Amino acid sequence: MKLRIAQTVANTEAEGPGKRYALWVQGCSLRCLGCCNPEMFSTSAGREADSAALAQEALTAEGVEGVSILGGEPFEQPAPLADFAERVRARGLSVMVYSGYTLAELKAKRDDAVDRFLATTDLLVDGRYEKTRPEPSRRWVGSSNQVMHFLSERYTPTDERFHRGNTVELRFVDGKLTVNGWPQAADAFRRGLK
Ligand code: SF4
pLDDT tens, 138-160? Predict the structure, then answer.
């Protein structure tokens, strides 16, 4: 199935537990103030990709324990992402998703594709990013209003990896220096470039 994506990173340790294949989707209508990825708001930027091909890429990425799906807003393209998540999870990878919608909002949509995507999600970080409420301690969470939901038994809150400090990664993507792993750092870095 076709979807719109911004970028992928085959192997990161900054976007969830362990080594992960990260997929940033393109397009978000929520437009939180201070979002570290405003270039991913537009639904016409980025590139088209195929969910089966992305799953194959994730499954052949070396040493990853799961995928992380970020954005952009993943639940604005639920059908192809449910397909992607089902394919990688069937082969043993875990699925972590960051959404600006709360879990209650997603359930209230009563949308089959949203429900399928949620059913294949192990870890969900939910809620709008609130710049005035930076998260002081929890790893992989941008602002203190956001909740990390353990939707399966794959991970537990007692996993010691959830209690270390945040990780920031710098990398060159298409010739440009990018920051990922910590919204405040990424936002500060982006503003510093202007
Ligand atoms: S923080 Fe997430 S939900 Fe908010 S505008 Fe950025 S991509 Fe969208």
Answer: 899 999 999 999 999 999 999 99
